[in-house]
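Dock adenosine-5'-triphosphate; give full complex structure.
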Amino acid sequence: MSAVTESISIFEQWWLQIEPAVQANTLNFWQFLYKEIYLNVIKDDRWLQYLKGLGVTLEVSFYAILVGLVLGTLLAILRLPQVQNMTANGKSFLSGLGVWVVRGLSKLAGLYINIMRGTPLLLQVLIINFGIFGSISIDKVIVGVIACGLNSAAYVAEIVRGGIMSVEKGQTEAGRSLGLSGVRTMIYIILPQAAKSALPAMCNEFISLIKETSILSYIALTELTKAGDYIRSRTFSAFTPYIVSGLLYLLVVLTLTWLIGKLERRLRNSDH
Amino acid sequence: MTTDNIIISVKGLEKHFDEGKLKALRGVDADIRRGEVVVVIGPSGSGKSTFLRCLNLLETPTKGTVTVENVNITDPKVNINKHREKMGMVFQHFNLFPHMTILKNMTLAPMKLLKKSKQEAEEKAMNLLKRVGLADRANAYPSQLSGGQKQRIAIVRALCMEPQVMLFDEPTSALDPEMVGEVLDVMKQLAMEGMTMVVVTHEMGFAREVADRVIFMDEGKIVEEGTPDQIFSSPQQQRTKDFLNKVL
Ligand SMILES: Nc1ncnc2c1ncn2[C@@H]1O[C@H](COP(=O)(O)OP(=O)(O)OP(=O)(O)O)[C@@H](O)[C@H]1O
Ligand SMILES: [Mg+2]
């Protein structure tokens, strides 16, 4: 801790050095740059606010991705042709009623995907925040996770569905011919292969989700964008707070891209 | 032969595609007896694969019944998964699971369905691998094998479930010619051990040598059936003669 305090005091000293020039409005470029950084990052430990915002952004994104993955995979399975066209024939464990319930859910899943993809995320966030949770006091992080997760699920569903359909029909037949049930064939044989082929598209979806959580600043969730915005309202610097926020987004996205690239290479090398 | 010897009985089997516009099977009756090797031949599109796939309900018949060990498996109340455990199937394109090692390919179903321990399942798999000379590839992935090796693995993967019947759909058609022999050898050995087999193939040599009975299909029907000698040396139907003239 003492190292940090010390280094900040060096920053304070530098600030004192240029302060006359700030007053006189005679800053050169480097002095101007330092002034911006000092006011928007260093002063009053403002960097902490960006980091807190970043933490909130990561938290919301992480849980929203989980919600999106689980719900999206379920939606994708409901949208598969074999589920959509399910008949009572040969499905001894499903009664006639069960089949109709599943087919109804499949239709609903289609409707859900279309609505979520066909309307702006901002609108969905506002509806969930003011419409659904309007009268309840609830943590904005939860509102954000629900809104972004529900939205992402629709995109994930299409990605997973594409992944599943890219797996050869022979794989299902091989699994079923061994006596594995449809569900087990899906879990052990189809989904692992689907996940691999869907990985690049899924990576894109995660990246857009992380960036789109910035929309949650509209409902006063102090995530990374809002943190920058708040600092701008204090320092009146038009660019710097947003650029700092932007750099942090970039850092997260590039790290994620790198990690997924590594995973992809590993998958490619390990098996076929 | 008593009916007890009949393991699969097919009656009035029809299969239509595209809402009845395409009739792949137009009334097939056949009995498969225990220990019998039945080879199904016929021109492309005659319904051979469809017939075979109806036997384990990979295709749902439009009409007719398939009875396996005295159970009508076309009855929706029947648990088809239980019956498929007893009927191994080998496909033209092998259909190994590319994301699993050979050993995992072979032990997945026995562990999940026969509730075998990992050790038990692997022991059985290794024994089978030794028999087809591929024990050293147990930890390889399917993509690291040749076509002939893949198909031999596909056969022993099915055998891991200790099936009563083995169904083969053109098991050598996707192979380079020099690899056909190694797969047919495994099948011959299996036949000699008394496995009940239904084999769709264009390998007439195999049919002549191994089959107890040859079925000739055309346009969704069985045109003629008999011993290899009857079919290959003195076919009765003109369509059989025409087909054999083309392929022999
Ligand atoms: N899933 C399907 N959907 C629509 N038509 C099909 C389907 N499967 C088979 N058919 C049609 O049914 C007919 C019989 O096909 P099948 O595959 O049983 O023939 P085959 O005797 O196995 O031919 P081949 O020697 O080319 O494998 C063909 O006309 C085929 O196009
Ligand atoms: Mg065929």
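Observed: The mean pLDDT of chain A is 89.
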